[in-house]
Amino acid sequence: MLPAMPRIVSKSPRVWRHRSGEIVLDRTHVMGVLNVTPDSFSDGGRYLAPEAAIQRGLEIAEQGASILDVGGESTRPGSASVSAEEEWRRIDPVLRGVVRKIDIPISIDTRKPDVADRALERGATIINDVTGLSDPRMARLASKAHAGVVVMHMQGDPATMQQAPRYTNVAEEVRDFLAARAKAGMAAGIEREAIAVDPGIGFGKTVDQNLDLLRNLDGIVSLGHPVVVGVSRKSFIAHLGGGERMEDRLAGSLAAATLAAARGADLIRAHDVVETVRAMRVADGVLRRRANL
Ligand code: HH2
Would you place residue 8 in the very low, low, confident or very high pLDDT band (cuts 50, 70, 90)? Predict the structure, then answer.
Protein backbone atom coordinates (compact mmCIF):
# COMPACT_ATOMS: atom_id res chain seq x y z
CA MET A 1 0.00 0.00 0.00
CA LEU A 2 1.29 3.46 -0.88
CA PRO A 3 1.92 5.76 2.03
CA ALA A 4 -0.73 8.38 2.39
CA MET A 5 0.20 11.65 0.71
CA PRO A 6 0.48 14.56 3.06
CA ARG A 7 -2.49 16.81 2.48
CA ILE A 8 -1.40 20.19 1.24
CA VAL A 9 -3.68 22.75 2.70
CA SER A 10 -3.30 25.98 0.80
CA LYS A 11 -3.94 28.85 3.13
CA SER A 12 -4.80 31.67 0.79
CA PRO A 13 -4.80 35.08 2.45
CA ARG A 14 -8.10 36.71 3.31
CA VAL A 15 -9.13 39.46 0.95
CA TRP A 16 -11.70 42.23 0.68
CA ARG A 17 -13.01 42.42 -2.86
CA HIS A 18 -14.15 45.65 -4.45
CA ARG A 19 -15.12 46.82 -7.89
CA SER A 20 -11.68 46.84 -9.46
CA GLY A 21 -9.61 44.46 -7.38
CA GLU A 22 -9.01 43.24 -3.86
CA ILE A 23 -7.24 44.30 -0.71
CA VAL A 24 -5.13 41.52 0.77
CA LEU A 25 -5.70 41.42 4.51
CA ASP A 26 -2.22 40.33 5.50
CA ARG A 27 -1.60 43.52 7.46
CA THR A 28 -3.58 46.26 9.18
CA HIS A 29 -4.62 48.74 6.51
CA VAL A 30 -5.40 52.41 6.89
CA MET A 31 -8.45 54.00 5.32
CA GLY A 32 -7.61 57.71 5.00
CA VAL A 33 -10.48 60.14 5.69
CA LEU A 34 -11.21 63.05 3.35
CA ASN A 35 -14.21 65.07 4.47
CA VAL A 36 -15.40 67.54 1.86
CA THR A 37 -17.82 69.24 4.24
CA PRO A 38 -18.17 72.53 6.11
CA ASP A 39 -19.11 70.82 9.39
CA SER A 40 -17.32 67.51 9.96
CA PHE A 41 -16.47 67.13 13.63
CA SER A 42 -12.70 67.20 13.32
CA ASP A 43 -11.82 68.75 9.97
CA GLY A 44 -14.99 70.54 8.88
CA GLY A 45 -14.33 73.30 6.34
CA ARG A 46 -10.69 72.40 5.87
CA TYR A 47 -11.16 70.61 2.57
CA LEU A 48 -14.34 72.21 1.28
CA ALA A 49 -12.53 73.92 -1.59
CA PRO A 50 -11.99 71.31 -4.34
CA GLU A 51 -8.31 72.20 -4.83
CA ALA A 52 -7.55 71.70 -1.12
CA ALA A 53 -9.48 68.43 -1.07
CA ILE A 54 -7.76 67.08 -4.19
CA GLN A 55 -4.37 68.00 -2.76
CA ARG A 56 -5.20 66.20 0.51
CA GLY A 57 -6.53 63.15 -1.37
CA LEU A 58 -3.26 62.81 -3.28
CA GLU A 59 -1.32 63.24 -0.05
CA ILE A 60 -3.37 60.54 1.73
CA ALA A 61 -2.50 58.09 -1.06
CA GLU A 62 1.17 59.04 -0.92
CA GLN A 63 1.26 58.64 2.86
CA GLY A 64 0.50 54.94 2.64
CA ALA A 65 -3.27 54.67 3.03
CA SER A 66 -4.79 51.61 1.37
CA ILE A 67 -8.14 53.32 0.70
CA LEU A 68 -9.17 56.97 0.25
CA ASP A 69 -12.55 57.49 1.96
CA VAL A 70 -14.32 60.54 0.52
CA GLY A 71 -17.38 61.97 2.26
CA GLY A 72 -19.60 64.95 1.42
CA GLU A 73 -21.96 64.85 4.40
CA SER A 74 -21.08 64.97 8.08
CA THR A 75 -22.69 62.29 10.23
CA ARG A 76 -21.32 63.64 13.51
CA PRO A 77 -23.74 63.60 16.46
CA GLY A 78 -26.35 66.31 16.02
CA SER A 79 -25.61 66.90 12.33
CA ALA A 80 -28.40 67.64 9.88
CA SER A 81 -28.48 65.76 6.60
CA VAL A 82 -27.83 67.52 3.29
CA SER A 83 -29.53 66.92 -0.06
CA ALA A 84 -28.09 64.40 -2.51
CA GLU A 85 -27.50 67.28 -4.93
CA GLU A 86 -25.46 69.25 -2.40
CA GLU A 87 -23.49 66.17 -1.36
CA TRP A 88 -22.70 65.38 -4.99
CA ARG A 89 -21.78 69.00 -5.73
CA ARG A 90 -19.13 68.79 -2.99
CA ILE A 91 -17.52 65.52 -3.96
CA ASP A 92 -17.83 65.40 -7.74
CA PRO A 93 -14.87 67.73 -8.48
CA VAL A 94 -12.79 65.92 -5.88
CA LEU A 95 -13.44 62.49 -7.36
CA ARG A 96 -12.63 63.84 -10.82
CA GLY A 97 -9.43 65.35 -9.47
CA VAL A 98 -8.05 62.25 -7.79
CA VAL A 99 -9.48 59.27 -9.58
CA ARG A 100 -6.85 58.53 -12.16
CA LYS A 101 -4.01 60.05 -10.17
CA ILE A 102 -3.93 57.62 -7.28
CA ASP A 103 -3.43 53.88 -7.29
CA ILE A 104 -5.50 53.03 -4.21
CA PRO A 105 -9.24 52.35 -4.23
CA ILE A 106 -11.66 55.15 -3.39
CA SER A 107 -14.57 54.55 -1.06
CA ILE A 108 -17.53 56.86 -0.91
CA ASP A 109 -18.83 57.61 2.58
CA THR A 110 -22.54 58.13 1.92
CA ARG A 111 -25.94 56.89 3.02
CA LYS A 112 -27.62 57.93 -0.24
CA PRO A 113 -27.89 55.40 -3.09
CA ASP A 114 -28.01 58.20 -5.71
CA VAL A 115 -24.71 59.63 -4.50
CA ALA A 116 -23.12 56.17 -4.28
CA ASP A 117 -24.27 55.33 -7.80
CA ARG A 118 -22.78 58.48 -9.30
CA ALA A 119 -19.56 58.04 -7.33
CA LEU A 120 -19.15 54.48 -8.64
CA GLU A 121 -19.59 55.84 -12.16
CA ARG A 122 -16.82 58.36 -11.44
CA GLY A 123 -14.48 55.58 -10.36
CA ALA A 124 -15.08 54.92 -6.67
CA THR A 125 -15.08 51.16 -6.03
CA ILE A 126 -16.30 50.85 -2.42
CA ILE A 127 -19.46 52.15 -0.70
CA ASN A 128 -19.02 53.06 2.97
CA ASP A 129 -22.59 53.10 4.28
CA VAL A 130 -22.98 54.23 7.89
CA THR A 131 -26.60 53.02 7.85
CA GLY A 132 -25.60 49.38 7.20
CA LEU A 133 -27.43 49.04 3.85
CA SER A 134 -30.71 50.18 5.40
CA ASP A 135 -31.95 51.37 2.00
CA PRO A 136 -32.46 48.26 -0.16
CA ARG A 137 -31.47 50.26 -3.25
CA MET A 138 -27.97 50.57 -1.82
CA ALA A 139 -27.51 46.79 -1.67
CA ARG A 140 -28.93 46.34 -5.15
CA LEU A 141 -26.63 48.88 -6.73
CA ALA A 142 -23.59 47.57 -4.86
CA SER A 143 -24.40 44.09 -6.13
CA LYS A 144 -24.88 45.24 -9.71
CA ALA A 145 -21.65 47.24 -9.71
CA HIS A 146 -19.63 44.57 -7.85
CA ALA A 147 -18.66 47.30 -5.39
CA GLY A 148 -17.07 46.59 -2.04
CA VAL A 149 -19.19 47.73 0.89
CA VAL A 150 -18.67 48.71 4.51
CA VAL A 151 -21.72 47.77 6.55
CA MET A 152 -21.61 49.94 9.67
CA HIS A 153 -23.76 49.83 12.82
CA MET A 154 -25.55 52.94 14.04
CA GLN A 155 -28.34 53.20 16.61
CA GLY A 156 -30.85 55.86 15.52
CA ASP A 157 -29.68 58.62 13.20
CA PRO A 158 -26.95 61.25 13.49
CA ALA A 159 -29.35 64.03 14.53
CA THR A 160 -30.41 62.23 17.72
CA MET A 161 -28.19 59.16 18.17
CA GLN A 162 -26.26 60.41 21.21
CA GLN A 163 -29.32 61.43 23.21
CA ALA A 164 -29.90 58.15 25.06
CA PRO A 165 -28.29 55.16 23.36
CA ARG A 166 -29.58 51.97 24.97
CA TYR A 167 -28.52 48.33 24.69
CA THR A 168 -28.90 45.21 26.83
CA ASN A 169 -25.56 43.86 25.58
CA VAL A 170 -23.94 46.24 23.15
CA ALA A 171 -21.28 43.82 21.83
CA GLU A 172 -23.80 41.07 21.07
CA GLU A 173 -26.40 43.39 19.62
CA VAL A 174 -23.94 45.12 17.30
CA ARG A 175 -22.46 41.77 16.21
CA ASP A 176 -25.92 40.35 15.49
CA PHE A 177 -26.96 43.49 13.60
CA LEU A 178 -23.84 43.31 11.41
CA ALA A 179 -24.37 39.60 10.75
CA ALA A 180 -27.98 40.26 9.73
CA ARG A 181 -27.14 43.22 7.49
CA ALA A 182 -24.28 41.34 5.82
CA LYS A 183 -26.71 38.48 5.18
CA ALA A 184 -29.24 40.89 3.69
CA GLY A 185 -26.49 42.27 1.45
CA MET A 186 -25.63 38.77 0.26
CA ALA A 187 -29.31 38.03 -0.35
CA ALA A 188 -29.32 41.09 -2.62
CA GLY A 189 -26.42 39.56 -4.54
CA ILE A 190 -23.34 41.15 -2.98
CA GLU A 191 -20.45 38.69 -2.80
CA ARG A 192 -19.51 37.58 0.71
CA GLU A 193 -15.93 38.71 0.24
CA ALA A 194 -17.05 42.19 -0.80
CA ILE A 195 -18.67 42.95 2.56
CA ALA A 196 -16.70 44.51 5.40
CA VAL A 197 -18.30 45.23 8.77
CA ASP A 198 -17.78 48.09 11.23
CA PRO A 199 -19.08 48.51 14.81
CA GLY A 200 -19.62 52.25 14.25
CA ILE A 201 -17.72 53.65 17.21
CA GLY A 202 -19.52 56.80 18.42
CA PHE A 203 -22.69 56.21 16.41
CA GLY A 204 -25.38 55.96 19.08
CA LYS A 205 -23.02 54.74 21.83
CA THR A 206 -21.93 56.06 25.20
CA VAL A 207 -18.25 56.08 26.15
CA ASP A 208 -18.69 52.80 28.04
CA GLN A 209 -20.52 51.20 25.14
CA ASN A 210 -17.71 52.23 22.75
CA LEU A 211 -15.17 50.67 25.12
CA ASP A 212 -17.23 47.49 25.43
CA LEU A 213 -17.31 47.19 21.66
CA LEU A 214 -13.57 47.63 21.31
CA ARG A 215 -12.91 45.19 24.13
CA ASN A 216 -15.21 42.60 22.54
CA LEU A 217 -14.23 43.12 18.92
CA ASP A 218 -13.52 39.39 18.61
CA GLY A 219 -17.28 38.74 18.36
CA ILE A 220 -17.41 40.88 15.22
CA VAL A 221 -14.15 39.40 13.91
CA SER A 222 -15.71 35.95 14.26
CA LEU A 223 -18.28 36.84 11.61
CA GLY A 224 -15.47 36.27 9.11
CA HIS A 225 -15.84 39.56 7.22
CA PRO A 226 -13.08 42.15 6.99
CA VAL A 227 -13.42 44.45 10.00
CA VAL A 228 -13.16 48.24 9.75
CA VAL A 229 -12.81 50.36 12.92
CA GLY A 230 -13.03 54.15 13.11
CA VAL A 231 -11.74 55.63 16.36
CA SER A 232 -9.82 58.59 15.00
CA ARG A 233 -10.21 61.77 17.08
CA LYS A 234 -13.58 60.61 18.44
CA SER A 235 -14.91 62.12 21.65
CA PHE A 236 -14.48 59.01 23.82
CA ILE A 237 -10.73 59.63 23.53
CA ALA A 238 -11.11 63.04 25.15
CA HIS A 239 -13.44 61.56 27.79
CA LEU A 240 -10.78 59.04 28.78
CA GLY A 241 -7.97 61.54 28.70
CA GLY A 242 -7.99 65.08 29.92
CA GLY A 243 -10.71 66.44 27.65
CA GLU A 244 -8.21 66.90 24.82
CA ARG A 245 -9.11 69.25 22.01
CA MET A 246 -9.46 67.78 18.53
CA GLU A 247 -5.88 68.60 17.55
CA ASP A 248 -4.55 66.88 20.68
CA ARG A 249 -6.22 63.50 20.19
CA LEU A 250 -3.56 61.82 18.05
CA ALA A 251 -1.90 59.83 20.85
CA GLY A 252 -5.27 58.55 22.09
CA SER A 253 -6.36 57.73 18.53
CA LEU A 254 -3.20 55.69 17.94
CA ALA A 255 -3.61 53.84 21.23
CA ALA A 256 -7.20 52.92 20.33
CA ALA A 257 -6.23 51.97 16.76
CA THR A 258 -3.41 49.74 18.02
CA LEU A 259 -5.71 47.97 20.46
CA ALA A 260 -8.34 47.52 17.73
CA ALA A 261 -5.64 45.96 15.52
CA ALA A 262 -4.65 43.67 18.39
CA ARG A 263 -8.28 42.60 18.72
CA GLY A 264 -8.44 41.72 15.01
CA ALA A 265 -9.39 44.88 13.07
CA ASP A 266 -8.22 44.67 9.44
CA LEU A 267 -8.66 48.33 8.53
CA ILE A 268 -8.39 51.48 10.60
CA ARG A 269 -10.27 54.57 9.39
CA ALA A 270 -8.09 57.56 10.28
CA HIS A 271 -7.56 61.27 9.69
CA ASP A 272 -3.85 61.26 10.64
CA VAL A 273 -2.71 58.92 7.92
CA VAL A 274 1.06 58.98 8.09
CA GLU A 275 1.09 58.50 11.86
CA THR A 276 -1.49 55.71 11.75
CA VAL A 277 0.38 53.88 8.98
CA ARG A 278 3.56 54.02 11.08
CA ALA A 279 1.77 52.83 14.19
CA MET A 280 0.15 49.92 12.33
CA ARG A 281 3.54 48.82 10.93
CA VAL A 282 4.81 48.46 14.48
CA ALA A 283 1.58 46.81 15.63
CA ASP A 284 1.79 44.33 12.74
CA GLY A 285 5.43 43.59 13.52
CA VAL A 286 4.44 42.49 17.01
CA LEU A 287 1.06 40.96 16.26
CA ARG A 288 1.71 39.29 12.94
CA ARG A 289 5.50 38.99 12.93
CA ARG A 290 5.39 41.09 9.81
CA ALA A 291 8.49 43.05 8.84
CA ASN A 292 8.08 45.65 6.14
CA LEU A 293 11.71 45.99 5.20
N1 HH2 B 1 -16.97 57.53 11.33
C2 HH2 B 1 -17.33 58.72 10.76
C3 HH2 B 1 -17.78 58.75 9.43
N4 HH2 B 1 -17.83 57.63 8.69
N5 HH2 B 1 -17.49 55.31 8.46
C6 HH2 B 1 -17.13 54.14 8.99
N7 HH2 B 1 -17.17 53.01 8.25
N8 HH2 B 1 -16.70 54.03 10.30
C9 HH2 B 1 -16.64 55.12 11.12
O10 HH2 B 1 -16.28 54.97 12.29
C11 HH2 B 1 -17.03 56.39 10.58
C12 HH2 B 1 -17.45 56.45 9.21
C13 HH2 B 1 -17.22 59.97 11.55
O14 HH2 B 1 -15.99 60.59 11.36
P15 HH2 B 1 -15.72 61.79 10.34
O16 HH2 B 1 -15.93 61.37 8.93
O17 HH2 B 1 -14.39 62.37 10.59
O18 HH2 B 1 -16.77 62.88 10.77
P19 HH2 B 1 -18.05 63.48 10.08
O20 HH2 B 1 -19.09 62.42 10.02
O21 HH2 B 1 -18.41 64.62 10.99
O22 HH2 B 1 -17.68 63.95 8.69
Answer: low
**Probe ligand 1: pick from 150, 152, 181, 210, max atoms within 8 Å of CB?**
152
Q: Is the pLDDT of residue 1 over 90?
A: no
- The pLDDT value recorded for residue 169 is 97
Indicate the domain borders of the chain: 27-230
pTM above 0.90, yes or no: yes
Residue 11 has pLDDT above 80, yes or no: no
33 within ligand 1 shell (Cβ under 6 A): yes
Residue-by-residue DSSP string for the chain: -PPPPPP----PPPEEEETTEEEE-SS-EEEEEEE-SS--TTTTTTT-SHHHHHHHHHHHHHTT-SEEEEESS--STTPPP--HHHHHHHHHHHHHHHTTT-SS-EEEE-S-HHHHHHHHHHT--EEEETT-S-SHHHHHHHHHHT-EEEEE--SS-TTTTTS----SSHHHHHHHHHHHHHHHHHHTT--GGGEEEE--TTSS--HHHHHHHHHTHHHHHTT-S-BEEE-TT-HHHHHHTT---GGG-HHHHHHHHHHHHHTT-SEEEESSHHHHHHHHHHHHHHHH-----
Residue 19 CA to ligand 1 center (angstroms) comes to 22
Q: Is ligand 1 within 6 A of the CB of residue 265?
A: no
**CATH number listed for the domain at residues 27-230:** 3.20.20.20
The number of the ligand 1 atom at minimal distance from the alpha carbon of 228 is: 7
Tell me the pLDDT tens digit for each residue of 83-135.
999 999 999 999 999 999 999 999 999 999 999 999 999 999 999 999 999 99
